[in-house]
Amino acid sequence: MKLDAHWMPFTANKTFKQDPILMESSSGMHVTTEAGQTMIDMTAGLWCTNLGHSRERVAKAMYESAKTLGYVSSFNLGHRASFELAERLTDLSPGNLNHVFFSNSGSEAIDTALKIAMAYHAAKGQSGRKMFIARERAYHGVNLGGTAVGGLVNNTRNFGRWGTVAHLPHTLDHANNAFSRGLPKIGAEKAQALADLIALHGAENIAAVMVEPIAGAGGVLPPPVGYLKELRKICDEHDILLIFDEVVTGFGRTGSFTASIEFDVVPDIYTSAKGLTSGAVPMGATFCKDFIYDAVVNSVEGIEFWHGYTYSAHPIACAAAIACLDIYEEESLFTRVNEGIGDYFEEALHSLNDLPHVIDIRNYGLLGAIEFQPQSDGLPMGSRVYKKAMEKGVMVRGAGDSIILSPPLIIERSHIDEFVEKTRLAAAEIA
Prior knowledge:
This protein has helices spanning about 15-20, 45, 55-70, 80-90, 105-125, 145-150, 175, 190-200, 225-235, 260-265, 290-295, 315-330, 340-350, 380-390, 415-430; strands spanning about 25, 30-35, 40, 100-105, 130-135, 165-170, 205-210, 240-245, 270, 285-290, 360-365, 365-370, 395, 395-400, 400-405. By secondary structure, it is α/β, with parallel strands linked by helices. It has two domains: about 15-55 and about 335-430, Alpha-Beta Complex (Aspartate Aminotransferase, domain 1); about 60-330, Aspartate Aminotransferase, domain 2. It has a seven-stranded mixed sheet, with helices on both faces. It has a four-stranded mixed sheet with strand order 1-2-3-13. A four-stranded antiparallel sheet has the order 11-12-15-14, covered by helices on one side. Strand 11 (about 360-365) and strand 12 form a beta hairpin. The protein is globular. The two termini are about 35 Å apart. One of its GO terms (biological process) is biotin biosynthetic process.
């Protein structure tokens, strides 16, 4: 089999194709390669297989949908599953986030959120509000809008920023908060940088502030205690919308349906994807409050929001999401983190603080990161540990000088013990 035809995403293509790792099957907490190696998956695929791999019930729901209604456009047409799914999701959402726009990925959900924010202000007669404030080390997908608001340098290096964006400083503070458990105690004052940016650029020009409640790809950065509440307060003072990117933090990852519920801070818009279908099929969703939907929908006659995708609310994706919701609720997975497994994961993660070169460990719910001291040869430690861990039979994610953990919500203590044992073996070989 030739490998050149497939240009792989976020991959060192030449390196991979010299020694490819090809997956053959997956089940529950494990994935198996074509070579026969079985690995425990501590990344939930890519933050997404919250229910574990290859849930038969989800596959059956998709199959039945494909047999009955394989596709229908959502442009001026509908199907019952999309309305059922929307109602169930909004019932679970906090506050009056009662409207959901379906897309096909987190990246599309982000761009949808940016457009909704601008459409809202235009409907209110403030079409000049097109600027966004985001945060350093943020990942908001890879479409042009999400790339513009993102705060990871490599993702914009060759593409620039297609929009007017300012960035808040990130909240990572090794000096004061290294090895924090849960939310760092110091750093809420960093939110005041938002007030400074508003004073500099003018509230009349700013559509929204977008942040991840817990930064994911930027290194798993939990917010300092009180930080998100302060952002909410400042946005309210200046009539600026607050958008939470919950693509990673939704669907039980933090111990609640959303991190906004967990942290008791309700945004005006939030985005979702990944856990929505537990990775079984692409789907994204953007939620907004009543006042935003009402302003846009009541602003004109005819089509109110010129935006959408061929596969928005795809019947098979809706069927998968509904099946996933059934499983989440029947197995109490939205809150399972708070029933002991989150504490066990935290203890296990911090037990690795004596590994060679470790300078920080961060965690919240079933999210975690172990950060290593950068090495003089410039090869990121995250990549080194990732490769060695794979050899030992555990899948982590390398991100710069960190490894990131986001295991499926079905994880048991024995899986966590296995992760600790094999990660120790991997790190020892690097030292």
